[in-house]
Amino acid sequence: MSGPVIAICGPPGAGKSTLAAALAARLPGAARLDWDDHETFTHQPPEAVEAWLARGADPGEIAVPGLAEAIRAAAARGPALLETPFGRAHPATAPLIDAMVWIETPRDLALARKLSALAARPGMPAEWLRGWLAAYARIVRPALEIQAARARPLADLVVDGESSPAALAELVQARFTSGG
Fold first, then answer.
1. 113-128 burial by CB neighbour count: b if 16+ within 10 A, else e?
2. Within 10 Å of residue 109's Cβ, how many Cβ atoms?
3. Where is average pLDDT lowest: 1-10, 14-23, 64-73, 160-169?
4. Structural domain containing residue 58
5. How far is the C-alpha of 109 from the C-alpha of 14, rounded, in Å?
6. Rounded CA separation 79/73 (Å)
């Protein structure tokens, strides 16, 4: 059995994980894969990320060790749901994606969701959160603009991030799977 690879894209806080969970509940045997489990780019010092932005922010420069292999293995077993910031804009994963969804979420709502998730993490040091907020204007915001400009146009479906997860999951399932 093999299934489609559906990339779920959007900025941090857009609802990628929430949509993936809702969709997985509707697709028996669906595997969930998260870009964040493979990338190490965001663990670099802010200066390295700023240098990447200054070079043009090529998503291909971001290594995601083991992600392509994990996608192939999951898709061989059934549907695979990939939570990713870049989808088809990332050359190492682009050929593996059958369908791409972009979650369009107002920036203030996405930021509020992201901050809420960060603040809820056990042991989250306040200094890390302050550092993330301090870097928002010079690093995070420009990176999000680049992400939207490069990834959103490659989506097969753009959905409203303010819609209910159940409604979005139903829409994505109907559009991209034979079980919809």
1. bbbeeeeeeeeeeeee
2. 14
3. 1-10
4. 5-176
5. 8
6. 11
Integer Cα distance of 33 and 82 in angstroms: 5
CB 165 within 8 Å of CB 24: no
| Sequence-ordered strand ranges (E) for 35-106 | 80-84, 99-104
The CATH number that applies at residue 145 is: 3.40.50.300
pLDDT at 42: 84
- Asked whether the beta carbons of 82 and 71 are under 8 A apart, the reply is yes
Split into its structural domains, the chain has a count of 1
Cβ atoms < 10 Å from Cβ of 148: 16
- pTM value is 0.92
Q: Which residues touch 69 (CB under 8 Å, ≥6 apart)?
A: none
